[in-house]
Amino acid sequence: MAMLFRPLLLAGSALALAPMAQAQTALPPVAPAPVQQFGRVSFDNRSLMIDGQRVPIWAAEFHPYRLPSPDLWRDVLQKIKASGFNTVTFYFDWSYHSPKQGELDFTGIRDMERAITMAGEEGLYVITRVGPYVNAELSRGGFPGWLNNQKARARTDDPDYLKAADEWLAAIDAIVARHQINGAKGGPVILHQIENELSQTSPVHRRYMDHLYAVTRSHGITVPIFHNDQGRNGQWVPDGSPVAGVVPGVVLGPVDMYAFDGYPGGTCTMDGKVSRGNGAPDWGFYGTGGARGGATASPATPGFLAEIGGGWFDYWGSNGIYACNAQQTGAGYGRLFYGTNLANGISLQSIYMGYGGTSWGWLPAPVVFTSYDYGAAIAEDRSLREKALALKPIGGTLAALPEIAAMVPAQKLVPSSDAIRLYHNRSPEKDTRFILATHQAGHWTQDTSFTFAADLPDGHYQFPPIRLNGYDAKWIVAGANLAGHRLVYTTSQIQTAQTNRLLLIGRNGEAGRTVLRFASRPLVKAPAGVTVTWGAARGDLLLDYTHGPLATVEISGGGKPALTLLLGDDAAGAACWQADGILVCGPAMLRHAVKQGGTLALSGDTIAPSPLRVWAKVGRVTWNGAAVPMRTVAGGALEAVAPLAGPAPIDLPVLANWRMAEGTPEALSAFDDHTWQRIDHRADASQSQKPAGQPTLTMDPYGFHEGDVWYRARFKGDASAQRLSLTYGAGGAGMVQVFLDGRLIGQQDLPAAMPRPITTGNLTLAMPDAARAAGEHVLSVMVRNNGHNWDLTAMDEHKEGRGLIAASLEPLAGPSFAVPLDWRIQGRAGGEDFADRTRGTPNNGGQYGERMGWHLPGFDDRNWRATGAALPQGAAGTNWYRTNVKLNVPKGQDATLALAFGDTAKPRSAAQYRVLMFVNGWNMGQFIAHVGPQRIFPIPEGILNHRGTNTIALAVTSDGNPANAPEAVRLITLQNRRGGVEVAQVSAPATLPASN
Ligand code: GAL
């Protein structure tokens, strides 16, 4: 969790005071640093190198555990690749794999080896981030539940903690080690992260880091090791770094590379509007320098943003910001911020998130709800957002000119407008130039026309007027050898460069100029709208044009091989894809292009009938296996005679035939709880101190770590039983319900609507007269635990108590804890030895229906009450509703279907209730009607059977008031495409033994 707000203030205030000229003035040059070699991977202080070749690392983060349908991992990876990235970054969630100390599970949905292998197969490098602590908006920041019972302070060198962490590291590192680029078979893993944002740097933390580094190496990890510094603190810069006297304030540590993170650029306002008050910070060459300057903290290693904001997460009770976030960090933001990073020498950047996915079950930390869409380039429903399409040219530029990763500041350029700043870098080896034009602070949303002059490798040039409209940047390249040609400069952006083929794009309606150098005047075939000028003096061919629909310019002669120059606007570029070295324009996505003999087998997606144009010399073209009749068109391209078909619409059945059962027998005095654990005074590692002498009530010491937990206390009716005072821990928007002898006597939601919610609460209830009647009474308490805290500060925050912390039944004026309460506790059936190892740790808590297997598809609900299409209100507590639904999504189509609750146009309902939704036994999230904002829950194929019968089970918790009855639930289609990948149903048990 990086400092979301701090850099914004800096960018907004400091730069606003000193707006001019400063930014593009570079810091004094840094001395070249020696190359450090880690097998096939090496680096100096300008870039990473693989096999000695400089490679810009352009990565997108993806968490396989947030998509519990492994076949779909391939879809996401292909989309990351198709969006122009060359690397995927994986966090791993220790908790996901470890239900119990000593047990680690990497099967099925937890098969991380498969995720890494797939990434390699799809042509991506992999950065692995194994923790032990990851944060990532996960419950306990990725620590397993059982670790909450460990007294040892986490993230220190306490031997108990180290022993626990080593168990995990030995297992996950062994998997990573097998897939390193340095391995015998040469896998995709190039970099490896230990720990995450460890901002405590005392000796116990230093020794912890030493330990992590040593065990990681002992586990066979040979690629460079790094840590991700929280924001820019200068913490954990490699030992031996030449910082003495140069960069005061840096904390050295046992890492090979320094990396940091940042989420600049501001947020959407509460009324869902983008804010544009913040510009892109200079975290390198052009910045303030020093330990807190970003890349400047580490003079011997290349600039490395292990996370750079590609969206942000949303919280319980907000108005729903993901769609707006996607705009906030949209196309212009990407060009501006990622471009500024690059200009600052940050040659490794990983976008967090590339695909956010779903924090299904009990994965989420209190700060987030089920959807982890993040406003990312690839939406939660796996569709490519407009900004993903706009990222393609960034990847395209980096792929075309890898030297861009290793540039240094060049001569300062002066724009004709004070509203503009120009960054100018050059490759020391090739002299290629990268000129980034952005607005100056305070001018971010201005529409500006400017020019400038520059001494370029091919001579002195006066640039034509260039328009920069608002929150955007222009990526200008000059002096480059590209596509077999000499590019003097272009004011368009390079999207794709192939031998003798160049695709250049720009904003619709804006002018562009491309200048190419020839020995003699070439022959140019250009459509109307492209002005061709020959400058004989220098041998320059000037092409002037306006960016619009794709235009083909054919150039031949002039002492160079033939060149097809494709010019287009953003929309034209968005429709063009490169895979396996083949350029295709028209469809919604290209996955692969495999040439076999004279056939080019293309695979990809359409979302509507689409044209298909491909630049390849082949006799036959197939699209998703079917032959496509083609004809030859300009520029050596083949074009489909008829459009490719789009998807057929999907017919979704109405959810009807519901059956219903009451699911709160624990509230009844007669309920048999003799198998439940007795509450005792056992040792507790919780950070929530209990009152002295009182029993240990928190759930973790009893082996219950996720979801709901029940407590039942017997007490003797007594005049003192006047007031009940409960202290409880329930995470973000968690809740408590209290019953006396079967009757709901009170409930409370933890307040939501804060990005950092309050996670514990107090409920004080006046006890009804019944409590004072003679005889035995039963108090039943249900606590919904919406996640344990993360441990962002490394102060054991994750050990805040969950469930009840203290309970006092007392007279109004008398001592607390006056009436003795004899407690028992029950959570998830089996505790840490729960039966459903397939669906794993996040799936279940301790609702009665869960313990009975009511959520599972094989449960026989024939005795339940049939309610038709209605979801009638039931008794106070939790009521269960089940139905079966048969789906028939056309074969060969990739759709994302979702469960939608009530009026999806509103962030929350007037009715107060919450729902745990189970699809074929999988807990796919929580809807809290009156808290919101999420009311649409995507269910991935593989969990949902798209061509078969599905069981949906809803556990609805409310006070039983008819006004708080559940609203209508329906299935909706979020995205539908023809194409996609083959998805097998994730196999999981249909029934499990019931347990009280
Ligand atoms: C980072 C942290 C990530 C995640 C992110 C916010 O600072 O390293 O784990 O929490 O913030 O989404």
Please, could you describe this protein's structure?
The protein has 996 residues and is mainly beta. It is 12% helix and 33% strand. It has 11 helices and 58 strands. It has an 8-stranded parallel barrel. Strand 24 and strand 25 form a beta hairpin. Helix 5 runs parallel beside helix 6 and helix 8 runs parallel beside helix 9. The radius of gyration is 30 Å and the shape is globular. The structure holds beta-D-galactopyranose. The site of beta-D-galactopyranose has 13 residues, from loops.
Question: What's this, in brief?
Answer:
Residues 1-23 have low confidence and may be disordered. With 996 residues, this protein is mostly beta strands. 12% of the residues lie in helices and 33% in strands.
